[in-house]
UniProtKB/TrEMBL annotation:
It comes from the Eukaryota. Residues 53-98 form the DUF6533 domain. InterPro entries: DUF6533. The keyword Flavoprotein does not apply. The chain crosses the membrane at residues 21-38, 117-138, 150-169, 206-234, 255-272. It holds the Pfam family DUF6533. Keywords: Membrane, Transmembrane, Transmembrane helix. It comes from Dendrothele bispora (strain CBS 962.96). This is DUF6533 domain-containing protein.
């Protein structure tokens, strides 16, 4: 019994989706004893399984969404001129595959260096999320007629948020260490289980909470400014008889709804990282990190595609153009020009 390893039984009996024991003879008794005498261990195994499923599901969602959007992406991104938004879009869309694949590989490859991989994926994921936030800022900047004051405000916000995150990462420490070995039953010899539990539950740090809180504040400002401006533009258009849309339909047309979908995921991750340090809470940030990265990428990329699709339809039909756009002049690649209340057909310009 002392040599029993998890996941190595010839006939398997699954306890808490992870504990493996022989179904015959004393095997069932062993599994029941494990659950009763080591309840924390059983909970950790259940959380470990959930972390793995969450990361795999996030990667699957990323692949699925990428396949679904191949046609509009080719039409509204690849066939357009190179500019700032196009570069940010492509980087966010495809760099997410890199850290998502790495974290999935780390979860199911116990022999990998957990510390180094976690450091890389955390920094790379944070950088990617910062760029998606930059895309959202550019979008909101277009709503405010490319106001120089708004541009300066967003640049300062983005740089301050980036500075806080850089400081936090440079001082990354793990002040809360947990004795995982004491929670593992003595008859569990599978080194993969030992390594995985140490990796995800061996320690935690409140420094990560600082990073996510700064992200939350930045996104909160963007969402608030976007919703307010979108509402004011909708009210103006309704008063002047230029649209009969209801507010929710207007939010969808202008892409504001995507902001409202992104924000709750950031709130959830920030709350998770603020939980009191305990061995059972230590794995929650790892559980939330990959979904946050993937959801940010999917919704931000869909925002860009949606805005361009709506703009093209309005230009072809000659109807009211979206008030919220980024214009890119054919001779000014990469330059964000003023978004006016005139139609794009009159402007003769492309849109982001």
């Amino acid at each position: 019994m002392s040599e029993l390893g998890l996941g190595k039984c010839p006939t398997r009996y699954l306890i808490s989706r992870s504990v493996c024991a022989s179904v015959r003879g004393p095997g069932v008794l062993l599994a029941l004893v494990t659950m009763n005498l080591y309840p924390t261990f059983s909970l950790l195994l259940s959380e470990l399984q959930t972390i793995g499923c969450t990361k795999v599901a996030s990667l699957a969602l990323l692949i699925f969404d990428t396949i679904l959007t191949l046609k509009p992406e080719y039409q509204y991104i690849w066939q357009r001129q190179w500019n700032t938004v196009k570069v940010l879009y492509l980087f966010n869309r495809y760099s997410t595959f890199l850290d998502s694949i790495i974290v999935v590989h780390k979860r199911f490859s116990p022999g990998s260096d957990c510390s180094e991989i976690s450091t890389f994926t955390t920094i790379f994921s944070g950088f990617g999320i910062a760029l998606t936030e930059l895309l959202l800022m550019i979008r909101t900047y277009g709503m405010y007629n490319s106001s120089r004051k708004i541009l300066i405000f967003f640049l300062m916000t983005w740089l301050i948020s980036g500075g806080i995150n850089f400081w936090a990462i440079s001082r990354w420490t793990k002040p809360f260490e947990f004795d995982i070995e004491s929670l593992i039953p003595p008859f569990v010899s599978d080194t993969g289980i030992h390594d995985s539990l140490k990796c995800y539950f061996g320690s935690t740090s409140l420094i990560s909470a600082i990073c996510y809180m700064s992200l939350l504040v930045g996104e909160g400002v963007i969402v608030l400014m976007t919703v307010i401006k979108s509402f004011l533009l909708w009210r103006t258009a309704r008063k002047e008889g230029r649209t009969e849309m209801q507010l929710l339909s207007w939010f969808y047309k202008e892409g504001t709804i995507f902001y409202l979908f992104v924000f709750p995921f950031t709130v959830m991750t920030a709350v998770v990282n603020k939980l009191s340090p305990s061995v059972l809470n230590a794995g929650l940030p790892s559980m939330a990190e990959t979904p946050l990265r993937v959801i940010h990428t999917l919704l931000t990329c869909r925002l860009v595609l949606h805005v361009r699709e709506v703009a093209e339809q309005e230009t072809q039909s000659g109807t009211l153009a979206s008030f919220i756009d980024f214009d890119e002049g054919s001779k000014m690649t990469g330059t964000l020009k003023h978004a006016n209340f005139t139609s794009r057909k009159q402007q003769g310009q492309g849109v982001v």
